[in-house]
């Protein structure tokens, strides 16, 4: 890539992370997931044609558009969050030489030769490279509950989304709903470290302002997406969620309203229960640090039928990575991507 001497650092659900000798202190995050989604949206056999150049023009146009959209979203995030919080500096589309074996490991079609390199136009995010040692992360958890209790979900919803029962942190409740959540340990640390509590309050306030202005949700489930360093400053390492055409706070409200009105699962490709759980966790943190909630149910959705909600969630697949989703849902995502405008930077802000 542009003659850089790259060192592989990590793989995430949506990106490969590298550093370069020529740019110390900088991380290059190769957006393999978006690249794969866009190629899939061009047709089931698109990647084979991409490799030999027959769909290069349309494919490159889509990927350049994706890089532009990502850059615009990052600029909006940085304008709200401010400097000093590791928000990526930007995104561009570059020719990246993927090893064939890596593409195969990432789920690209078997037609890819694992013994050769394949150069693809790929969105690449540029960010400060930060060592994640000595601090704490705020992660709402990736693992689904082993057993789903209507009583637990109702308690969570009433306490942190409807706010119809008295406040008070319940770490066991969050752990039962997301076994790998770091939120209980984080809240415990907040109670004993006033500087961390102040930083957590600043994070919740910034997150609320950003979502109200753009409608975009944060990616809070994975480890170290939101990280608080030893001095207490928060850093948004990988906190930008999916684009608004795929998921937003307005789409969340719409799906919850559909469940309440019909008693049936709401259509849509984005996860639902993990988003609700993440918002409940943010609101629990807001209560602890003495600030207003990140988001709560609109009045027309209160009281909410949480027992019906539990019945409408596919707890085995909701929130799984894209590749592990049922074929129908993966195809629906590809179709949404295929028909959406090339660049759509419209916000989808809160309705209240």
Automatic annotation (TrEMBL):
Originating species: Kribbella jejuensis
Species lineage: Bacteria, Bacillati, Actinomycetota, Actinomycetes, Propionibacteriales
Name the record gives this protein: Uncharacterized protein
Top-level taxon of the source organism: Bacteria
